[in-house]
Amino acid sequence: MTTIRVLALTGLFLTSLAFDQADAGDARAGRQKITTCQACHGLDGLSKNPESPNLAGQIESYLTRSLEAFRSGERKNDAMNIVAKELSDEDIADVSAYYASIQVDVLPP
């Protein structure tokens, strides 16, 4: 049993090293960069437009990967491909951190 615990703790430690905190965005800076996003995704990341998804409360890594895919053209959307093309890696990290930091409460029916 002790060997299993040591292996599990070692695995957790190595996994934590894999996540580089330098890649994490700055939510405060992201809040200053979302002016363009607000037109489609709402002032608070909760879209009023049925064609645009909610961004508030999304997982940061998902938002980052999505924006990178729009920027590269791997993911297609006319508006997002244009907007994302102008974003730097830092902009993407900051905007993703901001939207991920918004707490969304869900009330089941």
UniProtKB/TrEMBL annotation:
<dbReference type="InterPro" id="IPR050597">
    <property type="entry name" value="Cytochrome_c_Oxidase_Subunit"/>
</dbReference>
<dbReference type="Pfam" id="PF00034">
    <property type="entry name" value="Cytochrom_C"/>
</dbReference>
<dbReference type="GO" id="GO:0020037">
    <property type="term" value="F:heme binding"/>
</dbReference>
<protein>
    <submittedName>
        <fullName>Cytochrome C554</fullName>
    </submittedName>
</protein>
<keyword id="KW-0813">Transport</keyword>
<keyword id="KW-0249">Electron transport</keyword>
<keyword id="KW-0479">Metal-binding</keyword>
<keyword id="KW-0349">Heme</keyword>
<dbReference type="InterPro" id="IPR036909">
    <property type="entry name" value="Cyt_c-like_dom_sf"/>
</dbReference>
<keyword id="KW-0408">Iron</keyword>
<keyword id="KW-0732">Signal</keyword>
<feature type="domain" description="Cytochrome c">
    <location>
        <begin position="25"/>
        <end position="103"/>
    </location>
</feature>
<dbReference type="InterPro" id="IPR009056">
    <property type="entry name" value="Cyt_c-like_dom"/>
</dbReference>
<dbReference type="GO" id="GO:0009055">
    <property type="term" value="F:electron transfer activity"/>
</dbReference>
<dbReference type="GO" id="GO:0046872">
    <property type="term" value="F:metal ion binding"/>
</dbReference>
<feature type="signal peptide">
    <location>
        <begin position="1"/>
        <end position="24"/>
    </location>
</feature>
